[in-house]
Amino acid sequence: MPVRPCDGSDIEKLASLAHAAFEETVDHEPLGLWTRKISSIINGKYGTFLPTASFMADATAGQLAGVVLATNFLFYRGPVIALIAVHPCAQGAGLGTYLLRSCVNALSVEGFTVCRARISPGNDVSKRLFQRNAFVLRELWVG
Ligand SMILES: CC(C)(COP(=O)(O)OP(=O)(O)OC[C@H]1O[C@@H](n2cnc3c(N)ncnc32)[C@H](O)[C@@H]1OP(=O)(O)O)[C@@H](O)C(=O)NCCC(=O)NCCS
C-alpha cells in the first residue's frame, strides 16, 4: 500500500477517513466535527503542524486507507501524534504500526527525542498500538 508524506491539503478526505475509523470507538464524532478538528490540526491550533513527520496511505478509488498527523505542541512540551487512523477495511494488517513508526522515525531524524499521544480511556486498540511501539502509559489527571 503506497504511503506518502501528508501536507494536510486534503482535509475532506482526511475527515472522511477519521469519521469512518473512529465510528465504533469512544472517540466517535460527526463528520463535520472531524472536518473542523483536522483543519485545526493543520492550521496550528494544536501546535505547529509537522508535514515531514505526517504520512498517509492511499486506498483504491482515490480514498485514504490511513493517516498519521504530527504537531509540535508546547502544551505537551514537544511533538504529539495529533491523529492516527486506519480505515476499518484496512485495520489489523499492520498499517497503523507502519504509520506510527514512520512518524516516530521522521521525528527522530529531525532531532526530537520524545513523542506523546493522548489516548481516551476505553480506546484499548489504540492503547495497544502505542504500547507495542515503545510508548509508556501515563495517567493524565484533570482537575
Ligand atoms: C488504532 C489504529 C490506528 C490501529 O491501526 P491498525 O492498522 O489496525 O493497526 P495494526 O494492524 O498495526 O495493529 C496494531 C495492534 O492493534 C491490534 N488490532 C488492530 N485492529 C484491531 C481490532 N479491530 N480489534 C482488536 N485488536 C486490533 C492488532 O492486532 C495489533 O496488535 P498486536 O501488535 O498486538 O498484534 C486503528 O485501529 C484505528 O484507526 N482505530 C480508530 C482510530 C483510533 O482509535 N486512533 C487512535 C487514537 S489515539
UniProtKB/TrEMBL annotation:
<feature type="domain" description="N-acetyltransferase">
    <location>
        <begin position="1"/>
        <end position="143"/>
    </location>
</feature>
<dbReference type="InterPro" id="IPR016181">
    <property type="entry name" value="Acyl_CoA_acyltransferase"/>
</dbReference>
<dbReference type="InterPro" id="IPR000182">
    <property type="entry name" value="GNAT_dom"/>
</dbReference>
<protein>
    <recommendedName>
        <fullName>N-acetyltransferase domain-containing protein</fullName>
    </recommendedName>
</protein>
<dbReference type="Pfam" id="PF00583">
    <property type="entry name" value="Acetyltransf_1"/>
</dbReference>
<dbReference type="GO" id="GO:0016747">
    <property type="term" value="F:acyltransferase activity, transferring groups other than amino-acyl groups"/>
</dbReference>
